[in-house]
Amino acid sequence: TEIKRTFPEGFLWGGAVAANQVEGAWNVDGKGISTADMAIYKRNVSKSDYKKHNSMTEEHIQKAMQDTSDHDYPKRQGIDFYHRYPEDLALFGEMGFKTLRVSIAWTRIFPNGDEDKPNEAGLQFYDRLFDEMHKNGIEPLVTLSHYEMPMYLVNHYGGWTQRKVVDFFIHFCKTVFTRYKNKVKHWITFNEIDSIVRHPFTSGGIIPERFENVEQAVYQGLHHQFVASALAVKYCHEIVPGSKIGCMLTRLTTYPHTCNPQDMLAAFKANQFNYFFTDVQVRGAYPHYMKRFFHEKGIVIEKLESDDEILKTHPVDFISFSYYMSLVASADSEGMEKVSGNTIGGVKNPYLETSDWGWQVDPVGLRLSLNELYSRYEVPLFIVENGLGAYDKVEEDGSIQDDYRIDYFRAHFEQMHEAILDGVELMGYTSWGAIDLVSYSSSEMEKRYGFIYVDKDNDGNGTLERKRKKSFYWYKDVISNNGL
Ligand code: BG6
To answer: ipTM for the complex?
Structure first.
């Protein structure tokens, strides 16, 4: 019989953004300074140097903390979503979005992070935002922590390295669960929780120069996030009736360079390490293979007696993940051609094309990722980031002919559908950067992911006018036919 290429009923089609990359208004209505407000756009930085340029130095932090302008700090400006969200939500509604992934900026609710009383103006902003989403028929999907935390906690508590920060974060979570319990049913704890090992500042508020043993600090910070995530699950279930809350992983599917057993082992280890983070959050305990890892690195994690019980008792309801590209591992990669990727690079795969930013486009890798994750855990999956960062051109008639983006999405949707036929339980799909936004890694504006074009360039020039790209109409059609 012919297979009908539609997706399950109620499939949550939509898009994703993060507060720090769209809102702007970095010092408005009582908002405190966050880690994302430290990021500058550096001209003439090669694409492979983004990683370096994101790891914050003491000198840079001191300077940025004093700097009150938003010039050179694109994340302080975003795309002015803080003021323009009604127009943007109307456009998402026009595309037929069932859901929109946003995050709440911790610093809007608790400017320093350690206050008792929340900032009412910040809470009201998200009330307006969620109300407006519902008005447009869009269910909010809310990330509690997406690449930002109060700078005050970085400077006074060493970021996530101190236990006290778990309490502050949980106070923040309880506050927003209580306030929005009737408006938000789908939650995500930490965006790409694994990323703290690759960028300790962005994900953990850890400034490397301030620690004697950075790795020790990173894994201690990660442990605190695991505990905070489990407690967030507990309180979400207690406070928000009918809620579902998930973890979020950067899925870094890795292939062996050859069938040489050493390459196989290298790829196996890379994948296993990537699963460490979901193993803890879904299975509720540190996996066996991490013992050797910690032992060999001399890392000793300080735990409270209750921690193991907390992790065990509050596993997540679903796994959400980002998927942009696949990687290749080799036991001996010296001299081999390398490519970049989402916060991590690897050996070039000769079978794959790369994006304008050198990320290896691999739709079949998405099917593999879905199958592997589902086979390992058998809990519902949610793709909450996927998309193509590309240079777009506005034609003379004002149109944007982004056929390359349509091709990218079509190929990935076909593989998603294959995975569903394979038996994978997939809740939904939110493309990354549904509207053009500030890039995480480089703070560029011209690395565009959106269905909606935003008139703003890397130097901050532009009217901020929104325009529908060709992919806008295409995605609208996909959604209205439920993927057919
Ligand atoms: C993910 C992040 O890692 O990748 C997003 O969760 C980020 O915040 C996205 O924007 C794409 O990365 P980039 O560097 O192209 O913005």
So the answer is: 0.99
